[in-house]
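To: structure subgroup
Subject: Chain for Friday's discussion

All,

I'm putting the inputs and outputs inline so they're searchable in the archive.
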Amino acid sequence: MNSADRARIPSERHQPPLFYAISAGLLDLIGKTSANPSVEPNPAFPKAPNAYVHSPQELAQSDSLVVHLLRFVSTLAGLATVYLTYKISRELQLTHSVGVLAAGINALIPQFTFLTAVVSNDSLSWATSSLALLLTLRLFTSKGAPKNVTCIFPGIALGLAFLTKGTTLILIPFVGGVMLLKVVYLKEWTKSDLLRSVLCVGSIVAIIAGWWYLRNHILYGEPTGCKLNAELNPSLIRQKSIWSPYFRDVFPKVTFASFWGVFGWMNVIVEPALYVLYLGLMTVAFVRLCVQISDLRTSDGRSTRIQFCGLLVLLAFALLALIELVIMNLTLDNTQGRFMYVAISAISVLMSVGLTRAFGGRQRYSGAASLLLLMGLFVLNAYFLFFLRTVYWPLA
């Protein structure tokens, strides 16, 4: 491909097509070929936080209603992610209250709530990633040799995830690692079972998503298209070392804050004290999670072994998401916590387990404490979103 051809390629052309195909199908159903609502640029931007001036009048446009329909796709995907978070906790034989708390934590992260109401492939990528996570854990928890049907469904979920967003590719080492544990830890599979499962899952993934990555390799010289994106947007490139001050001073703070809620063009934040509350919550959850995992390690029985190993693999998946974000920031300044949401279900379940352990062992007190926590998270979520509304609408 020559430079003239490359110059005509949109900057987001490297994104996989599933979300956009679904959106185009919806537009076709209602007789639309495109959606181009009229928006007024904000002359005060970038000093002002919002790039466009928003007003109630913009909602009267016909194309505005089309945009809301496409946003609804993201919202449905967000709801699916929350439900899958609950199912993941139950797949590890955790209690119903732990599952409800995990789903609540997932749903009430302000950044998650906000991003599941925008037109973006992000929300669908989180849903497909969570589905792949659930079905992979189901493969791990099932007894006996693998059946074809138990391998086909994880392959389908992985294929859909890979057709939604490139960040989901971290599922490859995760799924492979979980399958390997079935052999070396639970000792319920033979090596031939492992090989058969890998071939089955891999074949399904290749059929569903392989064409997209082969296409990218043929057109752009590498399968993800990210190299081309970097060539088309050289201003985004910021090469740096892992030992640079960026990863000491900027990356941890901005990533953590934007995981919970930094909006706009990464320039709309709330009072720092609220982020401190979330930091305290995560710290307590992590410390008590480590205690819970330590206790499970010394317990006998298949159920506790499933929980022990399951929590470890969820922790490993969250770590993979963090490593992926670090690698991304070696060449880009892109400390957006939303990139960790590929593991949002795993993170929410881990937090729920840790916080439930912190509430104490009695079910009655633990349930009451979980309810109070969810009420508090709901209030914080509402505050973030009402604060955001006051930022975006005062120029109307």
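Points worth raising on Friday:
The chain has 15 helices and two strands.
Confidence is low (pLDDT under 50) at residues 1-7.

D.
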